[in-house]
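ok posting inputs for the G3I job
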Amino acid sequence: HASAKRGRRIDSLGGKMALDRRRWFGHATGDAPYEAIASVASNEFNRITPENSMKWETIEPQQGVFDFTLGDALIAWAEANDQAVRGHTLVWHSQLPGWINNPTVPWTPATLKPVLENHVRTVVRHYKGKIDQWDVVNEMFNDDGTFRQTVFYNNFGTDYVCWALKWAHEEDADALLFVNDYNFEYRGAKVDAAATFFKSLIAQGCPIGAVGAQAHLIVGQVDEAGITAGLSHFADLGLLLYLTEVDIRYEIGRGNDIANYTPSQVGQQAKDYYSLTKACLNVENCIGMTLWQYTDKYSWIPGVWAGTGAALPWDVRLNKKPAYTAIYEAIENQ
Ligand code: G3I
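and the output
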C-alpha cells in the first residue's frame, strides 16, 4: 500500500537545509507575528506547522462559518519563505468549538456525520495544493491502546477515521494523510494496538499514508534503539513516518529561564536529540521531523508541564544550544 506520495520533492526547495537530502526539517509556529521567528525559521527549515491556527475552534468557530484568516496568513508566510506546510489538525477531541463539544447538544450519528464531513471537506478543499501533509485524525488512542472516548468515537465507533481519510483524499488526492498521536515512539500497548488498527484500515482501502509520532519526550529517556523499533513497527505496514511535534523537556525550576539551564542537562539533551534524529534516519520510511516551536521562548511546555521547559534546540534568545549541533552530527554519522 505504501503511499509513494511525499508531497513536494525536498530537493526542489532550493538550498534549504533538510535533515538530510531526503528528509524534511520543520518547525511549528503559533499566531505570534511571524517576524519574531522569521530570521532563524526561514533559513533553517523547509516545512512549517500551524501550532493552533488550523484547529477546529479557530477555523470553524460557528457551525458552517469558516474563518481561514490565520491559516491563510501562515500559508502566505510559508510560500514567501519556500516552506512546505503540515496541516494540523482536522479531527481531534481537543480545541473543538463550544457548539460541537457540548454535552448538552444531543448529537446523533445522523446529525454529526454531515458536520464532520463538511468540516473535513471544506478545510482540505480550501488548502488543496497548498498543504501536502494533513494530520487527519489526532490522538484517537488512549495510552493503554483502547480507543479514546470522544464525541466522534461515541457516535461512530471507529468508522469516522476511514470516512475522514476518504473525504480528505477525495478533496486533495496529492496530500499525504496522517493519523498522529503522542507516545507513538516506542513499542507498547498503544503502538501495537494502533498498528493493528492501521492494518485493518489499509485492508479496507482507507487512504492512510503515514503515521505521525509527536515525540514530546523527556531528557534522559530517549532511546535510539527503542524508537527505531517503534517507528519500524508502523513502517512494516508500508506507512511513512514523521516525527511531528518534537521537544525534549527537563526539570528546570522556573520555566524556560536561560539562567536556569543546567550544563549536565543541556549536554544530555543534546545526546537525546542525537538519538531521536538517528532513530528517524534509521528508518527508511521516516521522512522528517518538526520541532514544536524551535525556540524555548514560545514553547507550550512550561505552561502545561509546570517546572519543566528548555525543551528546544534554540534558547529564549534564539541562540542555538548543543542540541542543534547534535541533530546535524546524527546526520553526518548515519
Ligand atoms: O488564544 C487564546 C488567547 O486569546 C487567550 O488569551 C489565552 C489565555 O489562556 O489562551 C489562548 O489560547 C491558548 C492557545 O494555545 C493559543 O495560544 C490556549 O489557552 C492553550 O490551551 C493553547 O495551547 C495549545 C494546546 O495544543 C492546546 O491543546 C498549545 O499552544 C499547542 O502547542 C498544543 O499543541 C498540541 C498539539 O496540537 C497536539 N499534540 C499535543 C500538543 C501539545 O499539547
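notes: Residues 30, 51-52, 94-95, 138, 214, 245, 300 surround G3I (CB under 6 Å). The domain at 10-332 is CATH 3.20.20.80 (TIM Barrel).
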